[in-house]
Input
Amino acid sequence: MRDTRDPSNTLESLPACRASRPRRGWVQAVLLACAAGALPALSGCAGQGAKAATEMLPNESVVRVPVQVDLENGGQARGELVVTVFTPQGEGRHPLMVISHGRAGDAAGRTKLGRARYATAARYFTDAGFVVAVPVRLGYGATGGPDLENSGPCGDRRFTPMFNRAASEIAQVIEAMARRPDVDPANVVALGQSVGGGSTVALAAAGPAGVRAAINFAGGSGGDPVKSPGKPCGPERLQETYAGYAATTRMPMLWIYTENDLYWGPEWPQRWAEAYNAAGGHAQFERLGPDGDNGHSLFTHAPEKWKPLVRDFLRAQGYAMPEPGAASGQARRP
Output
């Protein structure tokens, strides 16, 4: 979820535009041109204005990735995801980090997402040598389109189909990014926050090509910090969902939660992790102490608390994560 206390989590709005369905190969050409510097800031519409241009960092660009998502009724949803890309220093191919956002509780909040950037986290990973991609999924912010992530009423949550749809979009972004000449397609790490974290668990279960590890920050769905703090809807069913994903997951995961997460409470995340590992998963579970008024926002609110955990986890997977203050671009893939 968006944490407005964190100035690094800048959210920008891109003007809406209409375009015909792109031809096959379009996304590859776009991504290659962007990586080569021929298209420094692709938004899908010409003339975004001076303000948007000045807000872009020197290593930041925006691309659109066409996706199609299978629905339970046999149909498909289609759209173009707005994806913000940050590139590290140095020539050659780099590992890829894909960061997936959470979900606001109402349509207005989802629209306000704009263009998710997570600039502080992106800077940390680009300094470590990663290309960073931050997609906005269908139904949110600058991407718009149908909402595919409603898991149903509180008494009858259906988490698995919802997470699978989101994971499908993330996987298609990874596939598109893997075509870039500055990305090592065999070295991808997926990271997600809140609903994006649960979607990352689903992605890990699907095992897309090149994804070697995944990180789940406060992952889940069904929480309401105002009406029912610490008492999410359907936590037992979510536990079953996570256990089901574990059965087909082969990659290591890092799960980071906090004691004062008002969406899930202190106990349910640990139960979810225990069920996940008991079913065959490989999750390193870390429950940190309280953070602010609601630890659910740890990812954006307190990067210094999670950076050592993420650094050590990625080092264990073979990534040479630099020490704080080290020169940027030092991390190399295994």
About this structure: The longest helix spans residues 159-177. Strands lie at 11-12, 60-70, 76-86, 94-100, 115-116, 131-136, 183-193, 211-217, 253-258, 283-288. Residues 1-54 have pLDDT under 50 and may be disordered. The chain has ten helices and ten strands.
